[in-house]
Design a protein that fits this description.
By secondary structure, this protein is α/β, with parallel strands linked by helices. It has a single domain, classed as P-loop containing nucleotide triphosphate hydrolases (Rossmann fold), CATH 3.40.50.300. It has eleven helices and eight strands. Strands 3-4-2-5-1-6-7-8 form an eight-stranded mixed sheet, sandwiched between helices. Helix 1 packs across helix 11 and helix 5 runs parallel beside helix 6. It is globular, with a radius of gyration of 17 Å. The two termini are about 25 Å apart. The structure holds adenosine-5'-diphosphate and magnesium ion (MG). The site of magnesium ion has 4 residues, from helix 1. Belongs to the ParA family. May play a role in septum formation. It comes from Actinomadura viridis. This is Chromosome partitioning protein.
Amino acid sequence: EKEWPRPAECRVVTIANQKGGVGKTTTSVNLAASLAMHGAQVLVVDLDPQGNASTALGIDHHADVPSIYEVLIEDLPMKDIVVPAPEIPNLHCAPANLNLAGAEIELVSKVARESRLRRALDSYDTGMFDYVLIDCPPSLGLLTVNALVGGDELLIPIQCEYYALEGLGQLIRTVDLVKSHLNPGLNVSTILLTMYDARTRLAAQVAEDVRNHFGDVVLNTVIPRSVRVSEAPSYGQSVMTYDPGSSGALAYSEAASEMAHRGASE
Ligand code: ADP
Ligand code: MG
């Protein structure tokens, strides 16, 4: 595979949208795989108690595997939980499991409860990575706030359907609060249109609305709905290795290339 430009410094990209099922995990896993396949060192931080990103990367994440829960709640160093993804060189994962469901409550009484992921990343050698991608749960609770405080960039996946824009105002308000109080450097750098169904007029309309509203932040590449994308996780794989020639894999590769070439500054 051709190498893409690598950032001068590690880009920590938070992938968030409080709506469930919009493609956060699919996007995290497949962008991470594409970037790694083009020469970047990539870490996926699974911050969803469902552990779907860990599953899709073929990572063991049973309840007794050291996970992001212990990092956030028990101050275990990141280096003690990060493991290589079996399928793809240069790709690593900080796994999550159902223990993390309790963290949403347990964090409330912790010191610096919003900044625990940032502190864990700061004391970890993220300089060895080109990208850290943080996969968020479908809520705006403390786990997602930790991801917004821990990231430099926010990538919002948007599914092209009728209610897509409805929840976005709430997300943007949370981002503004985080920016003014906790992480002034957070930049909404990227919006990715996911699960696009070219046969429906509605999808085209929603895509147009999103582009009118957010402008250049929206990647040119749109991810089509593709059965291969949804099949890949059950084989513990990204679609990039499961079916590299499929429309979903090609689109995620395009999107990752755009991200890499745009760089952190835009
Ligand atoms: P989230 O993490 O936002 O909850 P997921 O990435 O888990 O969303 O996606 C929700 C569901 O949609 C999953 O079953 C996933 O496999 C499927 N899916 C995601 N993207 C696509 C796509 N481009 N084509 C077909 N199915 C998709
Ligand atoms: Mg998910």
